[in-house]
Amino acid sequence: MNRRARTLMLACLTLCICAPLVAAQGPQSESPAVRRAKEFARLIDSGNRAELRIYAKDNFAPEFLKLPMERHLDFLSSVHDSTRGVDFHSVQEEIAGAATLLLKARLTGDWLALTVAVESEAPYRIVGIGLRPPKPPASADSVKRLSDQQVAEELKALMDKLAAADVFSGAVLLAKDGVPVFKGAYGMANKDFNAPNRIDTKFNLGSMNKMFTAVSIAQLVERGKLSFEDPLSKFLPDFPDPEAARKIKIKHLLTHTAGLGGYFSKQWMESSRALYRTVDDMMKRAAADEKLLFEPGSRWQYSNTGMLVLGKVIEKVTGQSYYDYVRDNITKPAGMVNTGCFELDKVNPNLAVGYEKEFTDDGVGFTNNIFEHVLRGGPQGGGYSTVEDLLKFDIALRSNKLIGAEYVKQLLSAKPELNSPGYGFGFSIDSKEQIAGHGGGFTGISSNLDMFLGTGWTAVVLSNYGRGAQAVQQKMRELVRSVVEVRASNSSN
User: Fold this and answer.
1) Among the three residues 119, 139, 159, which one is the final residue of a domain in this structure?
2) Are residues 317 and 223 in the same domain?
3) pTM of the complete model
4) Dihedral of the CA atoms 381, 385, 391, 397 (nearest 10)?
């Protein structure tokens, strides 16, 4: 398995992080699944790769051992590195053949849940391991009354811990009503030259460019140049084929319900990055592989190709390149002076290099993503920005500077009628928490923008470490939630 695939696997597994154990129940009362879960949690707590090799030989089921040992070892090391140890709290859930432990990471204090599945008969060897959403105890839900200054202090304390442990590298900004409550930069933009990250360092956005593409489409709808109901065939009659083009509508492309996939295929991976510098270059690659996977609007499937196609629609409608249109109609009006899809074989001041940790028995090393990344980003992602520029984007969008209020609402509302309950037009939507925004992830890239709807809060985190943004994003959400809930409670009393 190549490094990128291994990294993507770990990205899925390390969303929660794991832990050691002091048995809360006597050995006689523990099921085989609980016992195995505690054993594996102790291994994670130690982070000892040699011990895992020995343990796996006797305690992993044969099918589970068919996975490369390096994957098991990397999971162990990555979780241990992110948590720096864990504490057992309780058994969160137990079903036949599987147990989920509620654990707490020592580094951040975050809750996490480790699930271990075992064979149905003795010796009850492990057949699967994963991390699940944690269910914190009721006592952990108490809301603290925090001032803006205390919010900043709590966030700074977390950032100092993460940076000192070298778990985070990047920049962070938390703002209220457009004014930063906290901002900071940590780690290195370029490890080869010990160049530090700064607040104005440009970080790769990953998929966050999809927001700019969606706003561009909404602008053209508002100006009467196209409609959300238009079929793709009106602009690209043969993509991916004539019949599919007639079925796919602009609204399907915006919501990842068009039935298209992604063009980052094996052929793309094996080809020169220098071949892909324009939207047309990328469309040629997509056209070679793409086909309709399901009836448009019938289900949701994340699609880089869908957003790329919208970039080509923008070019067809406006007669401009995608890059020029976004510059003239989004970044310039919003005052985003450090944002763009920069060509990486040219000189681009103050761009951060992306890094992934590589774990061995001898310790931790780093590899960069220079030869894995696209030469130039586009409608689907891969551009660069700063935390301050993304705050400007939020301000311009929610103040109706880029599009009218009606269209802002359409972008930032989920579309369950299109089988897209967690995604609007180009924006991820958490309806329960009333958050809209987008994240981005790739080898050496971890980024996120949260716009807290109905409040003036904005949270931005850009990291040049793979998976580096997750703990920071979670903490900022908790802080904003506590402030908003307490103040809402006070105002109703």
Assistant:
1) 139
2) yes
3) 0.88
4) -40
